[in-house]
Specification:
Elements: E1 2-7, H1 13-25, E2 29-34, H2 44-51, H3 67-74, E3 77-83, H4 85-92, H5 99-106, E4 111-115, H6 119-123, H7 125-136, E5 140-141, E6 145-148, E7 154-158, H8 162-173, E8 187-192, E9 197-198, E10 204-205, H9 212-223, E11 227-232, E12 244-247, H10 251-261, E13 267-270, E14 277-279, E15 300-302, H11 306-316, E16 324-331, H12 339-350, E17 354-359, E18 370-377, E19 384-389, H13 390-407
Parallel strand pairs: 1-2, 1-3, 3-4, 4-5, 8-11, 8-13, 11-12, 13-16, 16-17
Antiparallel strand pairs: 6-7, 9-10, 14-15, 17-18, 18-19
Helix pairs in contact: 1-2, 1-8, 3-5, 4-7, 9-13, 10-11
């Protein structure tokens, strides 16, 4: 497939090198047309080296080839990333001041814009009108991702991840209707890792959770276009870029953070391994081991059921009636029942919309790079299995969540 990749003059241009690599590794022939401004961020030598094709942004180069007409005519797909506010305005008003805008006017195939700009620029009425104009003419304009922007600012306006743009481009070429990022405009809160409950300043009660699955879910939700808030307990892996991170340690801290985050979340995914119990008393000093004292007795008290509280809060609020609450269950079978039997009972007891079930053990799930889950639905649909790497499992879970959001009527 012949692809024209237009590069706008924004700092996110550096990410487009990864997008170009995805296109070329998939076997596509890519011609890169950078704007003059974009070459201040990434030079033409980079685009020529990665694409294997000559690069120009002038209508006066290779005039005998009539590139300002030919490139648009021959392209099976035109992708513009980052599509700056300036580029969107020029495309919407039909300007043709350089090779890229000429090519956009001559394009016969599908055109995909991946915007990136500051939040206020994206939300400005002029930009919104330009986007609607382009969409009205049949162009695909992705919603930008949310996250850290240039400087200390954060919000919608971040370039979607290269893999997400690639997936949207391939869907568009195949004529599928899902070229828009399925969670664009949604806020997703995800808890990850394992809580730690202090015994004294040195010791704690913890669990074997590494946080790998929760981080993979955050990446998958981010790549689907969501604004992602990660409530991170103890994790053995770093938090991903492009998500908001709030650190927590104990179950009580996680409860406070989750209930606060629920106020503006479309989806809440409680994938953290939360301690069911905590010590009734926490020593201010290290508990000493002495021959002249008896062994300490630790009394445990029950931690609050965060998942159930989130469901109850959602159900009590009409404003949150469309909110999707997803729980995780790490289960082991015993003589009283198998994993799915315990999980079904938990689903009914908790009242969440989806329950992702892990069959755990000493050498299963925790800390591993692969996983196998069953997704149960309170609505009664057939259990869905997903297995593979934790990245693949997370993508399957996010696809299921996207389906639920787009096909299930809001709750009364």
């Amino acid at each position: 497939m012949r692809i024209v990749l237009g590069v706008g003059g924004g700092i996110a241009a550096y990410k487009v090198a990864s997008l170009l690599r995805l296109f070329t590794e998939a076997g596509h022939d890519v011609t890169v047309i950078p704007t003059e401004a974009s070459t201040r961020f990434v030079g033409t030598a980079t685009w020529e080296a990665l694409s294997g094709n000559p690069v120009s942004n002038s209508v006066f180069d290779d005039v005998h080839l009539v590139n300002h007409v030919r490139l648009g005519h021959e392209a099976d797909l035109v992708v513009v990333a980052p599509a700056t506010a300036d580029l969107l305005a020029k495309a919407a008003t039909g300007q043709a001041g350089d090779l890229l805008t000429n090519t956009l006017l001559m394009a016969h195939g599908p055109v995909l814009f991946a915007p990136a700009m500051h939040t206020e620029m994206w939300q400005h009425a002029a930009t919104r009108a330009n986007v609607e104009t382009l969409r009205g003419r049949g162009a695909a304009v992705l919603e930008p991702a949310s996250g850290r922007l240039t400087g200390a600012d954060s919000g919608p306006g971040r370039l979607p991840e290269p893999q997400a743009i690639f997936d949207a481009a391939m869907a568009l070429v195949q004529g599928r209707s899902d070229y828009q990022l399925p969670l664009a405009g949604r806020t997703v809160t995800i808890s990850a890792g394992g809580t730690r409950e202090s015994l004294d300043p040195v010791r704690f009660l913890g669990n074997r959770s590494s946080g790998k699955q929760g981080v993979a879910l955050a990446v998958a939700a981010r790549n689907a276009g969501a604004t992602v808030r990660l409530l991170a307990a103890h994790m053995e892996v770093p938090a991903p870029a492009g998500v908001e991170v709030q650190r927590v340690e104990t179950a009580l801290e996680l409860r406070e953070a989750a209930l606060a985050a629920a106020a503006d979340s479309d989806v809440i995914i409680m994938s953290a391994a939360v301690a069911d119990f905590r010590p009734g008393e926490v020593s201010d000093t290290k508990i000493k081991k002495r021959d002249d004292t008896a062994d300490p007795v630790i009394t445990l008290v029950r931690n609050p059921d965060i998942l159930q509280e989130l469901v109850e809060k959602r159900n009590a609020s009409r404003a949150g009636s469309g909110q999707l609450v997803v729980g995780f269950a790490a289960e082991t079978g015993d003589s009283q029942g198998d994993v799915l039997a315990y999980a079904q009972a938990k689903l009914q007891r908790k009242g969440c919309d989806l329950l992702v079930v892990n069959h755990v053990g000493m050498d299963k799930v925790f800390g591993q790079d692969s996983n196998a889950v069953v997704i149960l639905s309170r609505a009664g649909s057939e259990p869905q299995e997903a297995s593979g790497t934790k990245t693949e499992v997370s993508e399957a879970i996010i696809r299921r969540i996207s389906f639920e959001l787009n096909h299930v009527s809001p709750r009364a």
